[in-house]
């Protein structure tokens, strides 16, 4: 949305400049065409990248870890052992999908740029991997919670609360699996 607004403002600015220069109505429309075409191209490329990322990303929950296999041209695999998980959250979307951020415990970190776009937004100092737009997110969150509970025993507890990822995207719903260490 911000990218669309940027190109709309750019097109309006071009039209305004053309109008102030005394150009005809056809000239004003022509002045708006280049920023509009450039915006359409940028949005098309962004949509293509998003589609490719969605088609090539695989999230796997095993009995010992969460595995994120990401990348379009060069595939990268991130293994997050449950022993490294401090907490996991759920941010529900209206369509039944959701985001599951995973906070890492201790000094374990993965660089934000390596994770992007599978990183929780605005967590630069302590990046958190995030399973994005997971279908049937509540069921997947339950599977993740049960797997973590099974691997770490009773050291974990499930607690519904807002994760912060919900606030960043305009929702107040969420659930968190927090460590009781």
Q: What is the name of the CATH class of the largest domain? A: Mainly Beta
Compressed to H and E, one letter per element, the order equals: HHEEEEEHEHEHE
Give the terminus-to-terminus CA distance: 41 Å
Q: At the third CATH level, what is the topology name of the largest domain?
A: PH-domain like
- The poorly predicted ranges are 164-181
Shape descriptor: elongated
Radius of gyration: 22 Å
- Helical fraction: 40-55%
CATH architecture of the largest domain: Roll
Strand runs, count:
8
Please tally the helical runs, counting DSSP H or I stretches of 4 or more residues.
5
Q: Please outline the major beta sheet.
A: 5 strands, antiparallel
Measured by DSSP, the beta-strand proportion falls in 15-25%
Strand order of the largest sheet: 6-5-4-8-7
Question: What labels describe this entry?
Answer:
181 residues; alpha+beta; PH-domain like; 2 domains; 5-stranded antiparallel sheet; 3-stranded antiparallel sheet; 5 helices; 41% helix
């Amino acid at each position: 949305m911000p990218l669309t607004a940027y190109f709309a403002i750019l097109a309006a600015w071009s039209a305004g400049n053309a109008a102030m220069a005394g150009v005809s109505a056809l000239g004003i429309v022509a002045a708006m065409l280049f920023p509009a075409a450039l915006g359409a191209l940028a949005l098309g490329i962004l949509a293509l990248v998003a589609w490719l990322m969605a088609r090539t990303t695989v999230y796997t929950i095993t009995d010992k870890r969460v595995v994120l296999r990401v990348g379009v041209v060069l595939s990268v695999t991130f293994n997050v052992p449950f022993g490294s998980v401090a907490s996991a959250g759920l941010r529900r979307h209206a369509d039944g999908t959701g985001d599951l951020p995973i906070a890492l415990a201790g000094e374990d970190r993965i660089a934000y740029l390596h994770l992007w776009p599978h990183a929780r937004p605005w967590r630069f100092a302590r990046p958190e991997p995030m399973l994005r737009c997971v279908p049937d997110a509540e069921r997947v969150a339950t599977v993740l919670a049960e797997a973590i509970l099974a691997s770490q025993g009773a050291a974990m507890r499930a607690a519904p609360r807002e994760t912060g990822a919900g606030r960043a995207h305009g929702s107040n719903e969420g659930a968190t699996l927090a460590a009781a260490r």
